[in-house]
Amino acid sequence: MKNILKSKSFIKIFLVLVLSFPVTRAQNLNVIDSLTTRLANSNERERISILLALAKSHQNSEQKEAIKYANKSILLSEKYNDQLHIGRAHILIGDAYTVSGKFDEAEKHLEQAKDIFSVVKSEKDEVDLYGYLGELYIKTNNYDKAEEYYLKRLKISKKIGGKKKIAWSINNLVSIYLERGKMEEAESSAFEALKLAESLKDKNLQINLHVKIADIIAYQHGDLDKISEHYQRALKLAVEKKNPRASSAININWAVTLSNYEKFKEAEKHFMDALKTCEQYGYHNRIILVYSGLGETSLGKGNYEKAMNYFVKALGIVNKTNNKRGKASIYRKIGAIHIEQGSYEKSIEYLYKSLGFYEALNDKSSLSVVYNYIGEAFYQLNNFSKAEENYQNGVVLCEELGDQKGIAISYLSLGALKVKQKLFEEAMLYLEKAHDKVKKMGHSRELILYYNAMAECKYNQGEIEEALDLMLQVLSMEHKLKEFKKPEIESYTRLGTIYYELQKYEKAEMFFRKSLKTSIVMKSKMEIKNNYFWLSKCYEKLNKYEKSLEYYKKYSIIKDSIFNLNKIKQIADIQIKYDTDKKEKEILFLQKEKEYQTILFNSQKNELYRVNLEKDLERERKERDIIQLKSARKQSEIEQLNMQNNLEIAEKEIKNNQLSIQKSRLARELLIRNIIIGGGVLAFIVLFLALMYYRQRLKTQKIIARKEIEAINANINGQEKERERIAKELHDGIGGNLAAIKLDLSKLSNGSNHELQKVIKNVNGTYNEVRTLSHDLIPPKILKTSFEKLIKDYLNNLSKTCSFTISNDFYPSSRFNQLTDKIKIELYRITQELMNNIIKHAQADQVSLQFIMIDKRIKFIIEDNGIGFDTENISKGIGLNNILSRTKVLSGNMHIDTIINRGTVIEIDIPA
Q1: Which pLDDT tens digit goes with each residue over 675-723?
Q2: Residue 119 domain flag
Q3: Where a domain ends, among 224, 241, 258?
Q4: Cα 706 to Cα 235: distance, rounded to the nearest angstrom
Q5: Cβ count within 10 A of residue 764
């Protein structure tokens, strides 16, 4: 009597409510980029509004981002006590949590917003808030609260006069009417809102309403082409709006509707389209719905293994969330599959889990389905009182909801139950009620189930021909029958039993084989067992005893695959008894046959005796065959027991092998670990030695560098001392002598001797040059004078005796006067050396010197427009080597840029 169907209820007809309310939420990358740029260039007060705008931009596809930006807005708003923006941020966070399925968090934030707007009056924000609250309470099945908030939303919308808000408010109420089965109000309101939406060119609202209108038509079992037309228009608008959230919802709703109309291939396509979108954008709750829908589609087609795989995937995701509705739905569907596979205790376990969740959610529509499933499980366990109690509970709820399909299914179940209880009048009453409703709906599956149940009723009353007529009507729908595996199995089995009763064993065998083939595909143990049993009986009637025994063995194995070891002796005794009987009968048979042959060949007079003997022989043959059949059955039981023992031994060997494998794996892992540790230690040692070598090398290089610098310093110090000594000699020795010579010559001069006057003048010039040279060689002059003045004085003196013009620049000049004595001396000497080189070699008419200090670095750039030189061919003279040495002493570097006949630029860079 199986009547397990996929759920009659839709996966929430109003699923598309997750689209935006009056606010357009389709993500626009350009808008997000623009807002992000504005955010970076705005002040704190402006950032509050920009953060909220960013939250709205992400609201439709990236809820985590929306929550992040809204929370940042709250932090800034609290700084300025901006309650209006705090309230708006809580609304956005609440909606994001609703979409993510975190309903407790959603309610907390939306209630916070409600408290704020009860003080801070903003009717526009209240309209949005009540819309989001309504959506939340629809998803949590609190329809009274949902209706209350949607009516408040409509009232305020009419007051402030916004057509758009009025249209959205009516749209929200359509969802409530749908849930409560008020189809007339839902349909009229939906078309009224759609007309407004089209006049407003609000595509999001049009999407919502097209889907709802499709659902209304489907709920009333209307034309599938009209339904698909509305879904198609909604999907086209969603694609235009680049709204993946809407696209996935539409595809899910469309797939569910197609599945309910038994268009399973088309349904699977739309489910897979939805799955692709949901995985791309992380819509985890919808992935649960998709897997659940795919499972129901497979269940409807009778592919229980595939259905179970989808439901297990859905359960894996739902267990990571607090989605009680999702858990309830999946437990219900897994329970349904266990019924189909004959695991009735398991099915009841899952179904009662589902029942608990649905009772807490007060979801009457789903409760009616669960009651019907539980009734079916108890029916299969022959607990008829419990089965009837649950079927009747389902009828009561379906009548409250006006669910005609659900009522029809429950009546079919009750009718089959009454047939099994031999209460045929009550059974006929329920089945005729079911037939009236099934015929109006035009559902093939339910009609097939009706014919099967009615045929069973007639069969049990001995009206075999009437039962056959009913089943022939099922055969006339065989193209549809192939789509529903479970009804297909039941139908072929029932036809087999009817033909068996009519003694048409070949036909019976054909239908039992058809039923067995599908049963094996579906892995339905109960149906496989039944078919083995009936095939055994058929082959016995067809005198195919070997096949009869074969299928009886299979029947016995699947009927009871576990035997108690205490039965071994009993089975052995039975086997010995039947073996003895069989031998005795065989001996008697041989004796009779011998007597028969003797009589046959010896005398015709004994014809009567021969005939009687033949009859005895035939009887003995039959008795022997029966004994052989019984013996074979008992032998199969013994073989089954031996098989069980062998299985246990094999399992022990497998466990031992697994243990050995595990030990070898552990040993291998230990070896690998030791190799890794040893390799690691070796690598560490090598690395340590390499590091020590590198550090020693660096240390050596530093010592060499320090020694080089010390050598250069010693050289320069020696030069300075030599300069000082030469300066003293020039000043005290040669300078003093020249002064004395000048004085003596002056005494000799009388003024008229021109030649003597000329000599005195030359001596005086020589004396001044020696005096200047001695002062230039002595560092105290450098130390007592500011660097800028020192250089400028030097260049001024030089320009008096040189043929080229000299320009100089200091930036900033004040910082150059703060140089240390060491830098001042060395930089001064470098300047002298470079100017001497220009005088000697450059043939320039313009020289420029720049002293620049930036970020604690001194850049000295000297440039001339002379003949230049070849840096690769020219060997470094004493002057250039002195410059490099002094630069190195100051930890600096020198760069030469020169081209033949184009001048030279030398740049020296030293730390200040």
Answers
A1: 889 888 888 898 888 888 888 888 887 777 566 556 555 665 666 667 6
A2: yes
A3: 241
A4: 79
A5: 16
